[in-house]
Structure formats: structure tokens, C-alpha cells
Design a protein that fits this description.
Jelly Rolls; alpha+beta; DNA-binding; 289 residues; 40% helix; eight-stranded mixed sheet; HTH_AraC
């Protein structure tokens, strides 16, 4: 699989994290240690050739249309490619779709929406321009221009959800929604409704994903077999809670064992580092002037 990453225009930050240009043949995440779609994030996906399908845990597989909003995934999932696939993936932050597209994320059912249904002319033209683009640099300029244009059309307030995301990060994902509601001087119901509308996740689920992603990033960077020592630094009060998250969010090779055979704090550092590698593969990022 070929995977090249490019920086987005600075004016699109923090909503657009980066762009990925992917080429692959008969790709299946069961047999490859590289996850295309991260937990808790949103993506704009343009499938330029071939077929790309996703299957979240306990969910029927679905084929992505030519241009779509995908995510956020809140459990482990796999991606399958059929034929020679060329795709452009726009990696968004937690509230990127809401800000750039004006899309209420609580309306995104079954993990995706067809962009050509939301705004047919804009996204059909964008797909066509990307499909016939001759260089990655030109494609990046097309994406920058399109997203800056859509952002100028959608001026929805983030309803302090960006501040809530920072609050959760500062507390390392250890939040109580009632305490959070008091901090933002509103009700628990309002916090949960606004957070779901803007991000597609509840505050509790986002916090859980944030803590798990941050922990796996630390494992990936530190390469330490003493994994329990990392947990407290990353906000886990105990190892049992991390093990539960590992099997819920984790790679598909880490299938949940039967409850009777799984000690509450037992897991190998090899499994942890294998998943960390899949979540954070080495990809170079290019910046065009």
C-alpha cells in the first residue's frame, strides 16, 4: 500500500489535520498492520477508483460512495479494498465536519453520509477534479480551495464544544459530565445534546476514546514493555480499565477472549505495541508552499 500525507492550508486549522493519498490492491486490515480510519475522528473520503468498504464491530459492512463524510468510529472496525483503489482522505478534527460543512453529526447514521447528496454540485465537481488531477500538489490545492470555500458558507457556532474538547484533554479524559456541566454553567442534558450534535459522540465516549488514543500514542513513542507504568500518566486509574478499552477499541487480531479466560489486568506488551503500530504507522508529511 502506498500512503503519502500532505499538510493542509494553515487557514483550515484546526479543523483539517492533514490529507492522505492512498493507493492499494485488495487491501484488508485483517492482514495489514495499518488502520486507515482513526477512532473518534471524522474524514472526508474521495474514492477515485476501486471499491472501499468499512465494517464496524457488530455492524454490517458498507461500501463508501465516491465522496463521503465518514466517522466517527467508536469501536474497533476494519476497512476492505476491492480492485485497484485510489483514494484521497481528508483527516478532520473532532468537530471538523460541523464547522466546514455545517453538518449536524447526530444526523450521521451508519457511520457515513454521501457528500453528493448533501451538496451535489460542489462535491461532484471536487471528485471529478481530483480523479483527473495529474499531481498530488494540484490535488492539495483543489482540496484547500474547496474546503476554504465551504467553510466560508457555513458559519455555525461550535457552542463551546471546542472548549469542552480542550477541557477533556486537560483532564486526560477523566471527566464527570455533571461536573463538566457545572464548569460550563449549563445542564447535563444540554452538554450531551450539544456535544453529540457537533462531534457525533457523547462526552463520555469521546473522553474514553481520547484517553485510549493518547495512551496508545505513548506506547508507540516509548517502546516500553512496562506498559502499566504508562497508564497512570495517561489518565487510567487502573490496568483493568485499559484492558477493557484495548479489547473494545483494539485491532481485529486482538479479539476479546471469553470472560472466564481473561484475567482483568492480563495482556502482553507485544499485543499492545502491535496495535500501536497499526494506529500510528510511519507516514511522511509534505508541505507545499
Amino acid at each position: 500500500m502506498k500512503h503519502q500525507s500532505y499538510s493542509a492550508d494553515a487557514s483550515l486549522h484546526p479543523y483539517v489535520l492533514h490529507y492522505s493519498f492512498v493507493e492499494m490492491n485488495e487491501y484488508d486490515e485483517f492482514s495489514h498492520d495499518h488502520k486507515l480510519f482513526a477512532l473518534g475522528q471524522q474524514f472526508l473520503v474521495f474514492v477515485l477508483s476501486g471499491t472501499l468498504a468499512c465494517q464496524p464491530q457488530h455492524h454490517a459492512p458498507f461500501e463508501l460512495p465516491k465522496a463521503s463524510v465518514v466517522g466517527p468510529f467508536s469501536s474497533r472496525h476494519t476497512t476492505h479494498a476491492t480492485g485497484k483503489v485510489r483514494a484521497v482522505i481528508v483527516h478532520l478534527n473532532t468537530y471538523g465536519s460541523y464547522r466546514l460543512l455545517g453538518l449536524s453529526m447526530d444526523t450521521v447514521v451508519n457511520y457515513y453520509r454521501d457528500l453528493q447528496v448533501i451538496e451535489p454540485i460542489t462535491w461532484q465537481q471536487t471528485w471529478q477534479r481530483l480523479a483527473f488531477c495529474t499531481t498530488d500538489e494540484k490535488a492539495v490545492h483543489i482540496l484547500n480551495d474547496t474546503l476554504k470555500h465551504t467553510m466560508s458558507l457555513h458559519l455555525k457556532s461550535l457552542k463551546k464544544v471546542d472548549e469542552m474538547v480542550e477541557y477533556i484533554g486537560a483532564l486526560k479524559g477523566n471527566i464527570d459530565v455533571i461536573t463538566m456541566a457545572k464548569h460550563f454553567k449549563t445542564s447535563r442534558h444540554t452538554i450531551e445534546r450539544q456535544f453529540l450534535e457537533v462531534t457525533g459522540l457523547t462526552p463520555h465516549m469521546y473522553s474514553r476514546i481520547f484517553r485510549f488514543n493518547n495512551t496508545m500514542l505513548q506506547f508507540h513513542q516509548l517502546h516500553t514493555p512496562a506498559w502499566r507504568n504508562v497508564l497512570q500518566v495517561c489518565g487510567y486509574p487502573n490496568a483493568a480499565l485499559f484492558v477493557k478499552d484495548f479489547y473494545y477499541f483494539g485491532a481485529n487480531h486482538a479479539k476479546t477472549p471469553a470472560k472466564k479466560s481473561l484475567p482483568s489486568t492480563q495482556i502482553s506488551s507485544r499485543k499492545i505495541h502491535k496495535l500501536a503500530q497499526a494506529m500510528y504507522p510511519p507516514v511522511s508529511q509534505v508541505v507545499f508552499g
